Amino acid sequence: xxxxxxxxxxxxxxxxxxxxxxxxxxxxxxxxxxxxxxxxxxxxxxxxxxxxxxxxxxxxxxxxxxxxxxxxxxxxxxxxxxxxxxxxxxxxxxxxxxxxxxxxxxxxxxxxxxxxxxxxxxxxxxxxxxxxxxxxxxxxxxxxxxxxxxxxxxxxxxxxxxxxxxxxxxxxxxxxxxxxxxxxxxxxxxxxxxxxxxxxxxxxxxxxxxxxxxxxxxxxxxxxxxxxxxxxxxxxxxxxxxxxxxxxxxxxxxxxxxxxxxxxxxxxxxxxxxxxxxxxxxxxxxxxxxxxxxxxxxxxxxxxxxxxxxxxxxxxxxxxxxxxxxxxxxxxxxxxxxxxxxxxxxxxxxxxxxxxxxxxxxxxxxxxxxxxxxxxxxxxxxxxxxxxxxxxxxxxxxxxxxxxxxxxxxxxxxxxxxxxxxxx
Length: 424
What we know:
By secondary structure, this protein is an alpha+beta fold. The protein folds into 2 domains: 2-209 and 338-422, Aminopeptidase; 211-335, Alpha-Beta Plaits (2-Layer Sandwich). The chain has helices spanning 2-12, 22-33, 35-46, 55-71, 139-154, 181-187, 236-252, 304-319, 342-357, 408-422, and strands spanning 75-79, 90-95, 99-108, 123-126, 129-131, 161-168, 192-195, 204-205, 211-221, 259-268, 270-274, 279-283, 292-301, 325-335, 364-365, 385-386, 393-394, 402-404. The strands form 5 sheets. Strands 1-2-6-3-7-16 form a 6-stranded mixed β-sheet, with helices on both faces. It has a 4-stranded antiparallel β-sheet with strand order 4-5-18-17, with no helix packed on it. A hairpin with a 2-residue loop joins strand 4 and strand 5. Helix 2 crosses helix 5 and helix 3 (35-46) packs antiparallel against helix 5 (139-154). The two termini are 37 Å apart. One of its GO terms (molecular function) is hydrolase activity. Keywords: Hydrolase, Metal-binding, Signal. Residues 1-17 form the signal peptide. It comes from Fibrisoma limi BUZ 3.
């Protein structure tokens, strides 16, 4: 532990850039002094399973984080959702004041690791790397927010500020549009949104990220003895689904920022699919022409125009059915995209100035195509936004998920100074 603390202190010394003001240097010092407490809290919450469908686990993590925010003078509340959604709800913490910008700070309490999966506890692999479920996506980001606010509170710099902290409970598997109604309403009352999904190092932030929607392809065909394939029975449902998917790939796969992944395909004489369990069943034989094929996939895009154009072209491909087949495709909206904007880039410039004043160098805008969809996109149309401000690391959504321990204190310091400048 002493060795790890020494590594934190050494890595943080660079933060005392010549251009930081006296209050900002005080903020940096507070972050450094509080790192042992910060890491102990991170370990505690990582070791609580909070897969989206583990409602008790999500609420337990939310209670712990809410308690920390209450200590900092925030009023906390739990936003409940209808039982039919099977989602835990959201943590909201607010404080009202008259100084500076009204900030909307975004995180999420859930992870992709459901309770049925083997537990991967928080583990310090070495002085620079820790692993664990959700350690960077995004419990590391949530704890970063709390640590930054704690440093500001220690220096008496949260007084008279207006900050809303909104940690959703179902970012990894949303309960639907109703689940984000309160989220959007509160964001509209603020001036700036900062989201703390995984950082891609110290030198980039996210000014744009793609949206995500889903599609379902259903193919029906004449079924019968396999000797009739290519002639009296036509081509069957599997060949037609193959044609469609290959044409999607051939004609659309090179468009920048656009991807469409068929995540499930099942075909045979009969097909059944359960939306609640995401499980499919089929019955078929090699000597029977397939009468049904089902394909389910996602569509990722940057901007509504790209999404709608892709959907139109996909429909055109689907409509050109092979003989004796009939295919239909349906689309469902999920998370909108966050398009890069001048206002978002102005925020990026503020982060870059903080970084340079800390002696860490400039910060550039990351590639929108390198990010998946995120909660910030629900509010990107209403106020300037940034994302990718959380813990840095690798392997999100996998058993190899890690966090960069050396960059973590610097990212907390950067966020704390940024919040200070925005709320003056």
